[in-house]
Design a protein that fits this description.
Layout: H1 4-11, E1 19-25, E2 28-34, E3 37-41, E4 46-52, H2 56-64, E5 66-71, H3 77-84, H4 87-90, E6 99-101, E7 108-110, E8 115-127, E9 130-142
Antiparallel strand pairs: 1-2, 1-5, 3-4, 4-9, 5-8, 6-7, 8-9
Length: 160
Amino acid sequence: MLDEKAKRTLLRFIPHPLNICGVKDGDELNGFTVSWMTQASFQPPLITIAVRQDSRSHAMIKASQTFAISFLDASQKDLAEKFFQPQRRVGDKFGDVEFYTGEATGCPIIQAALGCVECQVKGSLEYGDHSVFLGEVVTAQIHQEGEPLLMKDTGWQYGG
């Protein structure tokens, strides 16, 4: 029998970075805070992200087969919070955020981030309430020095 309290406690021990995932489908751009993300391979360079299946961003990744990750600095909790909100509720989340579109994917990338990677989807697993997308890193850029924003440093909890 699954001990729900133990499961929740132990799964929250997994460290989670907080970054912004930029997505596009045609001319439509969106972004969301991604906390379930990890490196999956050195050669080729692969990362995995988990995305809620009922989100607009999930549909956009499936359609375009691309995404970009903007790595947030420890001081950018406000950006992470802004991009946690569903697009259908807040509209254009990039309205007052300086960004550019990636050369390889056309996905939005936050200029003030520590840096970014652009990814081509190489596979996915749709099971449970999130899908796991496996992305091959096709570009990487450093914008500035800093320390990454981690979930544990915000006092927030997502998962478990």
